[in-house]
Amino acid sequence: MKKLFTIVVLLACFIGANAETKTDYSVDYSKYTGFPWFVMGYCPEWVDGIMTDLGGLYEYATEENEFSTGETTTTNNGTVYYRLEKQPGDDGNIGLWHQYFIGDGFSTESDQDYTVTVLVKSTKEVTCNLQFGNWGNFVEQNVTIPESSDFEEVVWEVKGCKQNGGSFMVIQPNSDAVIEWKSLTVTHEAGEEQPITWINMIKNGDASAEWANPDAYVADGAYQGEGAEEICAYSKEYGYNDNNPHAAFIKDGAFYTTTAIVDDQVTGDAVQWQNQFWINFPRALKEGEALKLTFKYKASENASASAQGHGVPGAYMNNLTSLDFTEEWQTYTNESFSPGAGQHSLAFNLGVNGQDQKEITFYFDDITLEYMELEEGYFAAAINTDNAEAKYDFTNSIKFEYSDADAAYVAVVGGESEDEWVNQVMIATARGNDKGFKANTIKVSGTIVNDPDVWLPYEAAAQSKIALPVRGQWQISISEATDDESSQINFIKLVGDPDLEPVDIITNESELVTNATDKNGAADWNNQFWIMANRAFLGTEQTVLEFQYCIESDDEVEAKVDLQAHKTPGSYVGNNGSLTFTNQWQDYKEDFNPGADVQSMAFNMACEEIGYKYKIRNVKWYLKDEALNADDQTYENFINAEGQENFYVKVDGGTTYRYDQQPEGVDGDANGDGGVDVGDIDTVIEHIGGEYDEKVDVNNDGDIDVGDIDYIIERI
């Protein structure tokens, strides 16, 4: 056991008294001529500079069909969408739920509270679901738009943003109210921070010198040629250089590219990115690190470009903002440019708005990307998550002190009294700014325990929060890497709640059956099963999930089932690979970090055309600790040993039920959607003369025929 020199730290949590309101994003919809963001099946229209959803009564497609109204709408990038009449579902009703972006391409900071102010009017008061953040990492909450005959300013408060970096807002009304949008602004209250020195990382951003290696290019997802990574400007012209990004051309102290006309071998949206320009960064950026981006831009004629975050040029990451070019130089400035993890370049798609059929010269100059000069070392900020009002105070984070005698950096977080105990800490290698702190945090591998002899590896990982086993005052020691040992970290509880005791790993032996329906053109998630943990994960836990799985069938069959991470069932976060079910029992065992706010694992059971009877049994989900797990023990089980409270199911796109609360079959419900309607007649017709299905034989006479249709009609 090491003898450690310690410094005791009391961490207070407060927002600085000198807070000021900062604007993070502002959009005036009248500056657009059509919908400027990604279309998710529904495309709001533009009327005199106002965005309107027309009550969600239509669907939109890039190809006309028999349901077309004969009217079209054109997005801001020139894509034409046909307006289609919505068709009623099996229940005879037209679905009113629809969704669309109301903002995109702005930067946010995790744990920050935001105020969204919209100038809006609606024909009815409507409660909508708002998604604020980015895919798999957004806050969801209900917001209200009041009924009004004129535009009103409406304010929504978004608490505890989860996303660092590029964010969007999606609105999801479930109403035929006609909602019109005039403007939107996002702000937050920023506390006082230390003065910052900014350092430019871009070389030759003013195009004052020719490239040292003009033959550098990007291919196969990698930089090619000496110094290629440090070239700050790349371009791609359709048909040139094998369509690979190359060092941008330089003329008269500016970077330029002239687009080439795209032929008809390229179709759809792909024409937009056959001609591109990139601002390239000399290193991969950290998630959410604080940066300032500036550059000048113009074109040989009025034009537009959509922007994207890329890894190396050509490696798409996410959509960002858009630019409108004129023949005069303009300056772009973003003092809160916030990248995704690994972003290495900023791409501009030059073929929007039909520009793929034009030769236009685009110019860029005076490119700078500035980063903060921060104090380096090890720093800790901690909170008690049981206190809903607790907030990290990074400005007053505590510096670890080094002990020569013990070769370790040491700090103590939390106080001696119970009201000063903490149970979560963020440790960073830099401080001086909130974003700078969070972009330079570390994460710990393994299970943290109160033991002076347990040293765990750690690594750099932006935005990482470390969950302590229990509330208390904790001594944290960091030992840096040597030639013989990797970097390690140790935790000792000085005072606090009792330590967690190991428990036996439990197995829920329930045999869980999902009677999936045939696909019939439906989405892969039309049939779903979920394993749901007893609590949401923090994003710091390494867990182990085990179960057995098969298809009930006398024949040799195989069926792909995709896995997804969800918050609660139906709240998608991300994909987790896939399984191949057969008619033989198989074992599944994986250790993984589910991610922050994830609570369930979803199984998409409509990936195949045939609806099989899927079975899962002997489920275990527990905290990983190799030593304990070897003895069939863990510090925490995430499911119950008995009952079916941890399992959910959805069949044929119907309601999601807890497994043990599924309703009994409805008399005459041939398609299993919980109701009796014309959809059940269609199901009977599909099965007449085909394979016998007991569920479709609703009158139980041993045949599937018109008698079943008569039986259904009597019950509609």
Provide a descriptive summary of the structure in words.
- The chain is built from 4 helices and 48 strands.
- The strands form 10 sheets. Strands 28, 29, 30, 31, 32, 33, 34, 35 and 36 form a 9-stranded antiparallel β-sheet that branches. Strands 1, 2, 3, 8, 11 and 13 form a 6-stranded antiparallel β-sheet that branches.
- The longest helix has 10 residues, at 678-687.
- It has 5 domains: 20-190, Sandwich (Jelly Rolls); 202-373, Jelly Rolls; 385-496, no CATH class; 504-660, Jelly Rolls (Sandwich); 678-715, no CATH class.
- It is mostly beta strands.
- Helix 3 (678-687) packs antiparallel against helix 4 (706-715).
- The model is unreliable at 1-17 (pLDDT under 50).
Runs with pLDDT <50, length 5+? 1-17
Please identify the structural class as seen in this structure.
Answer: mainly beta
Report the total helices.
Answer: 4
The biggest sheet amounts to:
9 strands, antiparallel
Radius of gyration: 29 Å
Q: Which whole number gives the mean pLDDT? A: 89
Specify the overall morphology.
globular
Could you estimate the helical fraction of the residues in percent?
under 10%
The count of domains is 5
**Level-1 CATH class name of the largest domain:** Mainly Beta
